[in-house]
Fold this protein.
Amino acid sequence: MINMPVCRISGQPLHAFLDLGMMPVANAFLTKAQLAEPEFKFPLRVGFCETSLMVQLIETVDPAQLFHANYAYFSSISRVMEQHFAQLADAVAAEFLYDKRLPVVEIGSNDGILLAKLAAHAPAVGIEPSGNVAAAARARGLDVISEFFEPGLAARLRAERGAAQLVVGANVLCHIPDLNALARSLDVLLDAEGVFIFEDPYLLEIITQLGYDQIYDEHYFYFSVLSLSRLFAAHGLRIFRVQALPVHGGSMRVYGCRAGAQRATEPGVETQLALERQHGLHLLQTYVDFAERVRQSRAALFTLLYNLKQSGRRIAGYAASSKGTVVLNYCGIGPQLLDYICDNTPGKQGLYAPGTHIPVLPIEHFAADRPDYAFVLAWNHMREIIAKEQAFTQAGGRFITHIPNAAIV
Ligand code: SAH
Ligand code: TMP
């Protein structure tokens, strides 16, 4: 008997629509010694639930295997994100903080990029299970609890520190496999007129830009306002504002409160819901069509790189991102096409890319080596990368992207 996969929210059947093949953990970079050992891989498949309207992974990796003492992503590596979070902290302090004594809770506070700015306005506590990034935030003098956010912890926080006037989380909701428990935790923790704010990569952008490389082990869910408002409504919570953001290739920030709170729901919420219906985000066929476009995009990218290589050009990968792991493995792009991947994260340099085993080298190597082409594996940072690599383009080097279509830019 074949087990029908079920939705993690509704328990109803899940319709599988996209198969990205056997995939390693996107951030599991390997040492030279590990290349000889068998590599953990899992089937990276995506499904849609017609009841919850939630797009989600079918097979998943245990969070404890992903968020641990050696988490690879330090939020503060990007200057663009520093500015982004500074603006968020100022805006919420001006609009939503109403009691200097009540806590602000940040879920997934990582190295403290946002928490540090919130702490200037109210007693701020970060919830961050990955020990190394939590330690980096504590070293900055921040208050961090190194645990997974769940209802038991929410109850403890409320008892010890009071109800939260603000719960905020950036790029973390999609990392939490049990969203019903997350909503229950909010219900436990939030003050009567408290506000919660979450921002994550936005499904409509993924669909329209063909950003299928946002799909990997850490992202259990891909959100629309349609699916999130349904989830929150089932737990007595309500989205009152939505705001599209340019970061991470196109994100959506949702602002919520208790269903019975005084705050009015703004007209922009209904406008966004209508736009999503217009794009068919509530229909399985939309996702089936998306999967077909993803397969075409794979063929076009492989052909572009293969033809350049056949004509004697040298190509490097630029940025050893998690998205890159997905693209390279799904499209069959290995050391036969890319000489190496350069990256500015010291912890990744000298290692080998998951699945493809392409060596990861320091950015300085790229500057000295001057390949003919650089295939950008962090297209969400494209502008920042092009701006800082003018010497490469001035010397005749060209960048390649695969978003929204394979192209030399
Ligand atoms: N907010 C930061 C970090 C995003 S990465 C930013 O936007 O840059 C996601 C972070 O969430 C990781 O640091 C991860 O360890 C943490 N995380 C994952 N699951 C979590 C959970 N259940 N509760 C709290 N944090 C979690
Ligand atoms: P991520 O999308 O999985 O966080 O990975 C982004 C990677 O891109 C990270 O390893 C750092 C790298 N990077 C560079 O090498 N140079 C840059 O200018 C930027 C912005 C990122």
